[in-house]
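It would be a great kindness if you could assist me with a short task in structural biology. The matter concerns a single protein, recorded as an amino acid sequence and a row of backbone structure tokens. Kindly check, if you would, that the fold set down in the tokens agrees with what the sequence suggests. Thank you for your consideration; the sequence and its tokens are set out here:
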Amino acid sequence: HLPCIHPAHLRTGPRRDSDIKLDIVSSGELMFRKAKLKWVRAPPLEEGANPLKQKQEMLAQQEAEAARQQQEIESKREELEAERKKADEAAKAEKEEIEKLRD
């Protein structure tokens, strides 16, 4: 199922020949001209839908996204820490080499 946007004309209304179709990609995001579109708020409730359940699902998705971002930050921090350690060791070795050459 593809969501559709019908550009409205002032007198005749939406035209079928100029419809824009959006692809649905991972986690319910929409794709429009190579740009991912994220929901700013929950879509309108469907008939017979449980608003509490939808809110819980939305919160679970937000928590999962926050956890994923936190994991990315943590892995980047660990990577930078490892690079810093290597740079410190290289600087220390270079300093020792310079001291040996001075003696």
Observations:
- The beta strands are 4-5, 20-21, 23-24, 30-32, 35-37.
- Residues 48 and 65 are 28 Å apart (CA to CA).
- DSSP finds one helix and five strands in the chain.
- The mean pLDDT is 81.
